Amino acid sequence: MEIRVETGSVTTFESDVLLVPVTKGDAPLGNAARVDGALGGHLADAMRRGEFKAGRGQTIAFPAADGLRCKRVVFVGVGAAAELNPEAWRRAAGQAARAANRGKFQSAAFAPLDDAGFGAVTPEDAAEAIATGACTGLYRFIEYKTEEDSREPSTLTVLTLLCADGMNHVAMDTAAHAGRALADGMALAMDLANHPSAAVTPRRLADEAAHLAHEHGMTLEVFDEEQMQAMGMGGMIGVGQGSAEPPRFIVLEHKGAEGAPVVLVGKSITFDTGGISIKPSAGMEEMKGDMSGGAAVLGVMRTVGTLNLPLRVIGILTAAENMPSGTAQNPGDILRMHNGLTVEVINTDAEGRLVLADGLSYAQKYAPRLLVDIATLTGACVVALGHHAIGLMGTAEEAKADFKAIGEKVGERVWELPLWKEYHDDIKSDVADIKNTGGRPGGTITAGCFLSRFAGDAPWVHLDIAATAWDAKATDYLPAKGASGVGVRLLTGMLRKLAAA
Predict the structure, then answer these.
(1) 180 and 224 share one domain
(2) 3-state secondary structure 373-396
(3) pLDDT for 129-188, tens place per residue?
(4) Nearest to 240 by CA among 200, 196, 201
(5) What is the CATH number of the domain that holds 356?
(6) CA dihedral defined by 390, 393, 394, 397, rounded to 10 degrees?
(7) Residue 23: which residues within 8 A CB-CB, separation 6 or more?
(8) DSSP code at position 416
(9) Residue 20 forms beta bridges with which residues?
(10) Which of 323, 327, 331 is nearest to 429 (CA)?
(11) What would the DSSP string read from start to end of 257-300?
């Protein structure tokens, strides 16, 4: 879908469908009132009767009337004006775009909230959020659908954001372009995680990285198992050795500036059976999404490339398949990692931290200004935080504070957990330097403690997305069960902040 920004009046702009935001209240205000006046007050009547309360993402549609240059009007709720934020605009835009698409319309115009701007949110922030929400709201994963009605493409091809007099048209257009780039990055991450593991293997992830490198002028290195063995990557080799599908260590670099890079390390377990410590069968089909951290890193790199951020960014994917077989690693095995530490394998289903450990220690060669890993790491994170927050740990105090603020803005909230010494004591091993699990109590935290042993002296942040990478139900701007693309907006937000500085 093409996103445009144009200056125009809500009552005179020509489009198939007009999308008009409405705040909660007793009656429509601003542009909503103007459009409703042309409709004869139908919206005001619906609000008085309680049929439409203008809650976030709620929609109500009416046929257009004389005086409006459209075929249909869709009013979309954005909630209370005092609580208006970018997330409200994402939700409203997602629902509005889907409503327009259900009507088989080809073009839609999204009106500003009022003549002064987009409420308490800056017009630029609103434009970015609207572009992202509208594009992801139309996302569908239909590659394996064969029935014709399931494969029907979206009809909405153009969304125009109307820019009122006094708004900075150029700035809004730039913001909308960024919002679209974020949506494209999320779509790549969602596609990769939604595919079955037979289609997205470690080698397929390397191919996707190669495509991004070619498209955006990035550099790429892909290490095979022999090279990893020579580099002493015991975690990568140990996890991958049980599978017929060989592991790959993928390094993709965007050199938008000189100097120390930001390094992103994504857990990329393309299928996780648990290995010899095999998982229960119920829900195991979702383990195709255990590479969501790596998928997010590729999504971020796509967005970074599209925006051509003036920043040096390196994405590392630790890609392997965790399978049980006669060659698989066993509980009790001892691995020597890339940084020389030895690890006792207590549970082969605690494999993500093993591959990430090699990725984090390899990243030390770049002396990064910031080192971030992102992973569907622990089921314990779901128990601790439910499905509404990303687990946050690390040593970079300023970056952690930034992630908290950015998460609120982009709708990917984080919650910090401690890395106290007492938790580190839980992963001491009797026969090796450390062990790969400290047991069930504080499982998310002890996993973070494990990773901290490989982050070196770099400012480091760990993001556990196990609770947020997979949506069990549709949301306002993620309309289907499956991968959520989480992490793309959060990480890109941090990179844009660093680039601006």
Answers:
(1) no
(2) EEECCCHHHHHHHCCCCEEEEECC
(3) 999 999 999 999 999 998 877 777 789 999 999 988 778 889 999 999 999 999 999 999
(4) 201
(5) 3.40.630.10
(6) 80
(7) 29, 32, 54, 77, 78, 79, 80, 81, 84, 113, 119
(8) E
(9) 75
(10) 331
(11) SSSSPEEEEEEEEEEE--TTSPPPSTTGGGGGGTTHHHHHHHHH
Active site residue 497: no
Structure tokens belonging to residue 3: 């996103």
- Out of 353, 400, 409, 435, the active site residue is 353
Quick: pLDDT tens for 23-47. Answer: 999 899 989 999 999 999 999 999 9
- The reply to whether 89 falls in a domain is yes
Question: Annotated catalytic, 353?
Answer: yes
The DSSP secondary-structure symbol of 501 reads -
pTM of the model: 0.97
What whole-number distance in Å separates Cα of residue 172 and Cα of residue 174? 5
Q: How far apart are CA 289 and CA 302, in angstroms?
A: 19
pLDDT digits (tens, 9 = 90+) for 125-136: 999 999 999 999
Average pLDDT, the chain: 95
Q: What's the per-residue H, E or C state across 34-72?
A: HHHHHHCCHHHHHHHCCCCCCCCCCEEEEECCCCCCCCE
Indicate whether 263 and 166 sit together in one domain. no
Q: Which two tokens stand for residue 32?
A: 């909503």
* 458/366 Cα distance (integer angstroms): 10
**Is there a single domain that holds both residue 268 and residue 370?**
yes
Q: Which two tokens stand for residue 66?
A: 């004389």
The β-bridge relationship of strands 470-471 and 482-483 is: antiparallel
- Ranges of H-type helices in 74-201: 86-102, 123-137, 169-194
Indicate whether 159 and 280 sit together in one domain. no
Catalytic residue among 140, 203, 279, 404: 279
Phi, psi of 148 (to 5 degrees): -60, -40
